[in-house]
Amino acid sequence: MKPLLQLVLLRHGQTLWNKQHRSTGWADVGLTEAGERQAREAGRALAAAGFQFDTFYSSQLHRAKATMEIVKSEMRCDASSILERWRLNERHIGAFEGLGPFAVVSKYGLRRFIQCQLCYDVSPPPLALDDARFPGNQERFAGIEAENWPRAESMKQTWLRVRPFWEGEIVPALRSRRRLLIVSHKNTLRLLLEAITGRPASFFDMLSVRACKPLVFELDDDLRPLRGYVVKRSPNG
Q: Taking the model in full, what pTM does it have?
């Protein structure tokens, strides 16, 4: 009997803006000390459970890359390179970036705020092209083709960005029986969970994609999920 295909998804550790309940999107906010500790615990839990990986994927954003580096260090996989993919970046939340929920509601109204949270095809107000937060005005995103710089994204638009990565890299890698670890973000991971399970992204609320809780999927050769579970914290973590 062939071994099952293995895919592990991990949300990055806590950032200062997470702690302050500010919308982050593509803002490049680093990890807090608590976030670094969460990443260490995730790495130790994966190591204690005997996980090994052939390929490590991360978004282009610092909080995901830093989480992955810490996880790899705890697993003694420092020599393995991280494949950074901008398509794994968080949903771009446009003019909401940097604002807390009260500021968003005060400036744009409760209805727009709720619609952007709950509706698949509603995007936040877009950034102006001369806004410093627009990806086209930031050097770290210069490698992304200009037509792909988002001003704001709905969940539907985010999936259209993530889908080529899923179909073009992840599916072939899984079919080649590579063991994958992906570190990304809440909304991006919700969309990957939809692709894996067939359930809508709205099914996977915030509690389903918690910071640094490894989500393991074992799939058959047709990429049907046969088992999914969260790796529990190592007793020594």
A: 0.94
